[in-house]
Amino acid sequence: MSYQNNVYKPSISVSSKAKKLSSGASEIIDTILYFSFRLLALIIGCYIGYTLSLKFVPTLEDLCLARTEDCMNIQLYRYKNTFLAQDSVSTTWFWYNGENLFVYGQVPGICRSVGNQTYVPVNTFKVGFDNKEKLVTFSALPNRCIDSHTAIISYYTSTLKVRLETFILKRMSPTSTSNVYQIIQALYNAKVFTFENDK
Questions:
Q1: Which of 1, 3, 62, 143 is the most core-located residue (most Cβ within 10 A)?
Q2: Predicted local confidence at residue 119, as pLDDT
Q3: What is the mean pLDDT of residues 4-21?
């Protein structure tokens, strides 16, 4: 401070002005950097989220953890390369004995009983495999009379000691309704059963 003619004149040094200006500029730069880093983090987060959605959502859909309307719930009893299953939509039972597919409830008529054994009419198909296309094939055979699905269930649970299993599988064609042929293909894709010529 200096006193000239008894008048007080505060003197400010140039260095303190520079300090105030530099601290103000420093605050502005800090603010710009702060918001720049936040914006950069937001952009990186959006990019990572978009990339993950492209890569993992299809996987989740294939596992029926997303878009579950494109999936079907199948309950079945299986032993080795055979199974008895029910379509949850149509409630149709079908039995694959390792060679032929028997579809219950589609054929009208009555079968003769032998002793106390009751038989029911079923559609019968020879099941094959197209190794080139990796598709299950079906050839119609004459209708047959076989044990009822309840008798087959009893055989699987009592004699073979197997339990009811549930599979949630992706439909082969999401626009079509669930049917036995599509279920068989989905069960093959899920490795529930195999074919000898599958290589």
A1: 143
A2: 92
A3: 55
Number of domains in the chain: 2
- Same domain for 75 and 124? yes
N residues, the chain: 199
pLDDT above 90: residue 91: no
Q: Which domain holds residue 143?
A: 69-189
Which pLDDT score is estimated for 134? 82
Q: How far is CA 16 from CA 3, 9, 20, 23, in A?
A: 20, 16, 6, 10
Going from the C-alpha of 15 to that of each of 11, 22, 28, the distances in angstroms are 12, 10, 20
The answer to whether the CB of 140 falls within 8 A of the CB of 104 is no
Q: Quick one: which of 164, 167, 163 has its CA closest to 185?
A: 167
87 and 153 in a common domain: yes
Contact partners, residue 142, CB within 8 Å, separation at least 6: 124
97 token code pair: 């004995």
Q: Are residues 180 and 129 both part of a single domain?
A: yes
Residues 101 and 42 in one domain: no
Q: Report pLDDT digits (tens) over 146-182.
A: 999 999 999 999 999 999 998 887 776 654 445 888 8
- CA–CA gap between residue 126 and residue 141 (Å, rounded): 7
- What integer best gives the mean pLDDT of the chain? 80
